[in-house]
Design brief:
- By secondary structure, the chain is of the alpha/beta class.
- The protein is 41% helix and 20% strand.
- The protein is built from 8 helices and 11 strands.
- The two termini are 18 Å apart.
- 33% of the residues are buried.
- The modification 4-aspartylphosphate is found at residue 51.
- InterPro entries: CheY-like_superfamily, OmpR/PhoB-type_DNA-bd, Sig_transdc_resp-reg_receiver, WalR-like, WH-like_DNA-bd_sf.
């Protein structure tokens, strides 16, 4: 899952991004509304965690732009105000969910994951395919009943492949969904991660390389 965090309190923004990355999400961070509009113009995000009171361009206007573009991106709006009228107004302009500050990080994670599931065709909370069982919420992976320990990026790649339900996923798509924008697009990090993931999942291999196209399970 790829997430954009838009928050002008830099310490909070960086802390949220760090926590989401630990949950195997690819996260970009910006600190004002103008930068947010630049990012959403060039990158596809599953979820935008959007502070409402932003400098340069207000969070409401960022949200309206996402709605105007007709993007499947889901918006979790943050605000220091807990007034019902503010929450209603935020939802009416296009936000999908609303979370007042201060918030419990576990709740933020749960809301981001729930919104991320709504950007694609609905799938069961626990994904199962080819003897693999992946639970995004618990960050657990089992193969034929045996737990497999994966690093965050390995988990993210496996989740993208599992969610594709047998369709081929290109290296570019994996790079977009599992890594942030600071990753060199010409790096071999996808190939190396897939190789490590294959080794950890064991035999027989379940990740198939489709020459010239990508990977599938």
């Amino acid at each position: 899952m790829r997430v954009l965090v838009v928050e002008d309190e830099q310490l909070l923004a960086d802390a949220v991004a760090t926590g989401l990355r630990r949950e195997a999400m690819a996260v970009d961070v910006v600190y004002d509304g103008a930068a947010a509009l630049e990012r959403i113009a060039v990158n596809d995000y599953d979820v935008v965690v959007l502070d409402r009171d932003l400098p340069l361009v207000h969070g409401d206007d960022v949200c309206r732009k996402l709605v105007e573009l007709g993007m499947p991106t889901r918006v979790l709006m943050l605000t220091a105000s807990g007034d019902v009228s503010d929450r209603v107004e935020g939802l009416e302009i296009g936000a999908d969910d609303y979370l007042p500050k201060p918030f419990a990080f576990s709740e933020l994670i749960a809301r981001v994951r729930a919104l991320g599931r709504r950007t694609t065709v609905a799938l069961p909370p626990v994904l199962e395919r080819a003897g693999i069982k992946l639970d995004p919420n618990r960050r657990e992976v089992f193969r034929n009943g045996k737990e497999i320990q994966l690093a965050p990026k390995e988990f993210a790649v496996l989740e993208v492949l599992m969610r594709s339900e047998g369709a081929v996923v290109s290296a570019e798509q994996l790079l977009e969904k599992a890594w942030d924008e600071n990753t060199d697009p010409f790096t071999n990090v996808v190939r190396v991660t897939v190789m490590t993931l294959r080794r950890k999942l064991g035999e027989p291999a379940v990740i198939v390389t489709v020459p010239g196209s990508g990977y599938r399970i």
